[in-house]
Amino acid sequence: MSGRNTVNDDTLGRTRRSLHGIAELVLAGPQHRASGRIRLRVTPGGFGGVTTDLRVEGTDLVGPAGRVPLAGTYREVATAAGVDVGAPQDVYSDTTGIDPDEPIDLDPAAVALVTGWFALGDAALRAFAADVGGDAEPVLWPEHFDLAIAVDEVNYGASAGDAGEPRPYAYVGPWTPREGEFWNAPFGALRPAEDFPDVDTLTAFFAEGRRSAAQP
Fold first, then answer.
1. Spatial contact of 157 and 146, defined as CB atoms under 8 Å apart
2. Which of 155, 172, 175, 196 has fewest C-beta within 10 Å?
């Protein structure tokens, strides 16, 4: 994860909020209005739609209209990309609350940190799913801005951070609460991204979570 130790929490928080806004207002919303789907996915250098060719790559939006810098307001970026700005309607209530006319605020190092973490998470989730004999496809959910799969009623994921945990983290969240040393968060287990230097260590965390969730 490029820049993981050089981006402060405030800068990361502003960038994460803006990336979340782009995911919701510029990618998921227009995609949902066109196809009924809100799911996003990790793409090279960023993330994008699953039924459209529109994606974030670094600090640019890339699509059929070309490459658009992620600068100005969400509405201006969406217009330049040829889509109608706005969150998905009547799908989930926990929206970002970002106004389309609010300016985007991105720090390149923080963007690299978030997108690098999602790339690592995507690779680890795919490796974990293959190891357990599953074919779950990692989904970047626009409402929470985290990447996840579900296997046997347990969520496994990589979050860019949130109000409760400001920096990126990995998690395991059983649908039914578990008790024991492994489980250190109200929803299950959480570990900071800094604990995972590579795909193998993150895959091992997910595997440990699966074993722990299987214990009575």
1. yes
2. 175
- The Cβ of residue 102 has, within 10 Å, a number of other Cβ atoms equal to 16
Query: Is it the case that residue 1 has pLDDT exceeding 90?
Result: no
Cα separation of the two ends of the chain: 36
3-state secondary structure of 154: strand
Is the Cβ–Cβ distance between 16 and 145 less than 8 Å? yes
Q: What is the mean pLDDT of residues 172-196?
A: 97
Cβ neighbors of 114 (< 8 A, separation 6 or more) are 12, 15, 16, 19, 160, 168
pLDDT tops 90 at residue 28 = yes
Among 50, 57, 18, 56, residue whose Cα is nearest residue 34: 50
Which residue's entry shows tokens 């989730």? 125
Contact (CB, 8 A) for 104 and 77:
yes
Task: Look up residue 165 and give its two tokens.
Answer: 């945990």
**Contact between residue 167 and residue 48 where contact means Cβ atoms under 8 Å apart:** no
In the beta sheet, which residues pair with residue 147? Answer: 140, 158
Token pair recorded at residue 133: 């004999």
* pLDDT at residue 2, rounded to an integer: 44
Q: Give dist(CA 41, CA 55) in Å, integer.
A: 9
**Range 46-73 average pLDDT:** 97
Tokens of 117: 């973490």
What pLDDT is stored for residue 5 in this prediction?
A: 62
In one-letter notation, the amino acid at residue 137 is E
Structural tokens at position 38:
């809100």
